[in-house]
Amino acid sequence: MSPDSLPPGSVRSAAEVNEQIRALWLRAGGTLSAQERTEYELLVIEWAAAIREQVIEAA
Predict the structure, then answer these.
(1) Which residues of the chain have pLDDT under 50?
(2) DSSP class of residue 11?
(3) Residue 30 and residue 16: Cα distance in Å, rounded?
(4) Is residue 35 classed exposed, middle or buried when 0-12, 13-18 and 19+ CB atoms within 10 A define those classes?
């Protein structure tokens, strides 16, 4: 499920997702496998959605 298809308010905070991204890189030792790259890409999309939601709330 893409973050754009989630109902409003169900997106995790950017800080939560960022923490998961950092943990993924630490576990991977700086080099991502194909599966980890897919996970990373999904996390970055989710992070961007969370940032957009924060900007909308601030406006």
Answers:
(1) 1-6
(2) S
(3) 20
(4) exposed
